[in-house]
Amino acid sequence: MTVTDRDTEMNEVSARLAYVDFKLRFTGQVTRADLKSAFGIAEAAASRVLTEYSKQRPNNKTQKTNTIVREGFEPLVDFDAELALGMLANGFNSNKLFGVTELTYEKIGKVPNQLNLCEVAMITRAIAGSYSISCNYLSENSGNHEMRTLVPLAIMHDGSSWMFRAFDRSEVKNIKFKNFHFARVRNVTENFEVKADKQKDGEALSKDEHWNLRLPLILKLHPTLSEAAKKQVRTDFGISEDKDELYITERAAFRWIVEKKWFIDARTEAQKKEDEENGIRRFYKFELCNLDMVQQMEGV
């Protein structure tokens, strides 16, 4: 065996052990089938990987079910929270762990210590295990920072922030399915041991009407834009030079996020009139042309 072959084999073993560590930490369990699917290896090879991991981290998982032992879990790999969430969304990629890229790459404007890795892992394990968590949430829309009971359901990324969709058991109003920012969660505890803390039928993502409703959004370049500004928006959004409209479909659960990030004017006529009377001028790139239809679909 050449030095190159030996190095390749070592990298493959390291990647497989890192995968086991990743699955345990962020989903709570790893199986031989997971390893076979991820690396195309046989059952016997998958068993050897799990055995080797147990040798290196004997207190991290149970031997029979290969589930995480939370107390005293000692990570084998130092994961970054954003990297872990990206892999949960797009699949495990050992190249990212080892800093291997096809082209020179650097993320711009990375906020240090924005996400608490341990709390992110507790939330993603709750999604994988279908159980609830308790936490405080620093909402930007309300002063309610009291302890909540959430049932996390899915992770999302809007291009700049990581979020998760959850059923809020503490909410007294009708809308209980909501979006939450990972960065605003505090004091997370997992509720995985009691049956009552498990996800109930009415709390599943399949019952989330706004998640499952896809809205057609007809966006028109905002009339307040100058011709130069319209040209720039056309360029940024891939709109033909002879067009003023952009048609997209989006989950109802994400409409407010898209409106905020894309500067979409979704005001009613009454709201527009009120702003005009009060001398309020807002910057918009688009106007939502089919607001009435969207509101009807949403049941507003």
UniProtKB/TrEMBL annotation:
Limits of the DNA-binding transcriptional repressor CapW winged helix-turn-helix domain: 12-62
Domain WYL: 121-189
Domain of life: Bacteria
InterPro entries: CapW-like, WHD_CapW, WYL_dom
Protein name as it appears in the record: Transcriptional regulator
Species of origin: Enterovibrio coralii
